[in-house]
Amino acid sequence: MSNSREIILLNVSGVDKPGLTATLTDILSHYDVNILDIGQAVIHDDLGLGILFEVPTSNESSPILKDLLFKSYELGLNIKFTPITEDKYNEWVGHQGKERFIITLLSRRLGANQLSQVTKVISNQGLNIDYITRLSGRVLLNDHYKNDKSVVEFSVRGTPEDAIAMKKEFMTISKDTEIDIAFQADNIFRRNRRLVCFDMDSTLIQTEVIDELAIKAGVGDQVKEITEAAMRGDIDFNESFIQRVALLKGLDKSVMKDIAENLPITEGAERLFKTLKKYGYKTAILSGGFNYFGHYLKQKLDIDYVFANELDIENGVLTGKHSGEIVDGNKKAELLKLLAFKEDIHLEQVIAVGDGSNDLPMLQLAGLGIAFHAKPKVKASAKNHISTIGLDAILYLLGFRDREINI
């Protein structure tokens, strides 16, 4: 009887059916082996099972392998045994102290070209892929996939050789192949986000409310031009805000109700907020827009907090002025910090979502900042971006699977 330590990697593949893993592990249990690692995946009813085990010094491996081989033959499985040296095992154990990251790919349809380019970047950065899993539901075979989602998650290990260059490469792939690539540290904060703060205009809704008000006031082109310059960061937000509000002077307040009731809600918003509420997340609107519309969305989407600007109204018409402090980019960041303090959470547990340059301070402050269908400058500066699918993509960055959402 051998006194040397035997470590064996068992790989099993074949058509999946109930009870296969139970049958094989039952054989191992008779020999009292020590399970060092185990992993299993099923893709389209095809099983891939790996078990790394140590044979007790009181036993030999031959009877174990023979029993596994016979049982696998009976079950119609392919089986492979690989002996692992102690040095190789100890080297593998040593890897567990390395950094870990989550890379999420989000698109309407995932193509081999996209996958190939992303995995090449991962490899070139010296990162090792531990596992790949699909988060989205199964995609139907049809040509109408406007609202489909194809989302997969990579768990990778190691330290990027050049994180800045890696982000640039991901940005290029994203632009060229219509895929979003999110990169997050796999730590306790990533698994424990608790507060999500949203910009409103062009984020929660697919319009700029001040532009809608301007159209009603007959100054649409003038206001839109100022809005676009502010969102690009070409002019100061506060000055642009004052200029635009001034152009609304004399507008009857009754038009606000009509605009609110016809706001175009962004794809995925309702699914996102229902899920966040169900699982106990807090949500907030931090907007350079207007309170009236923020509170309308608060009721519609069951949002916890709203902070926005207050239009001044006298005798039923807009005065062309505002009340109180302007909610600009710095104010959004300040409010985000105050909400985190109120909820007694770390800033790393906060998600911020926005599209404009005035959102950058809160996107950079939050643990997870997401530029949503954003301007190029904002997308390049934010930690992560979503440009191909709707707001419910945020759920995948939190690790949710479609089967867990079910809303």
Q: Give a count of the beta strands, DSSP E runs of length 2 or more.
A: 15
Number of domains: 3
Q: From the coordinates shown, what is the CATH architecture of the largest domain?
A: 3-Layer(aba) Sandwich
CATH homologous superfamily (4th level) name of the largest domain: HAD superfamily/HAD-like
Cα end-to-end separation: 59 Å
How would you sum up this structure, described in words?
By secondary structure, the chain is of the alpha/beta class. It has 3 domains: 6-94, ACT domain (Alpha-Beta Plaits); 98-185, ACT domain (Alpha-Beta Plaits, 2-Layer Sandwich), CATH 3.30.70.260; 195-209 and 264-405, HAD superfamily/HAD-like (Rossmann fold, 3-Layer(aba) Sandwich). Helix content is 39%, strand content 27%. It has 16 helices and 15 strands. It has helices at 20-30, 61-75, 86-94, 112-124, 163-177, 209-217, 220-232, 237-246, 254-261, 269-278, 291-301, 329-342, 360-365, 376-381, 393-397, 402-405, and strands at 6-15, 34-43, 46-55, 78-84, 100-107, 128-134, 150-157, 180-185, 195-198, 282-290, 305-314, 317-323, 350-354, 368-372, 384-386. The strands form 3 sheets. The protein has a 7-stranded mixed β-sheet with strand order 12-11-10-9-13-14-15, sandwiched between helices. Strand 14 (368-372), helix 14 and strand 15 form a beta-alpha-beta unit. The longest helix is centred in the first third of the chain and has 15 residues, at 61-75. It is elongated, with a radius of gyration of 27 Å. The relative contact order is 0.11.
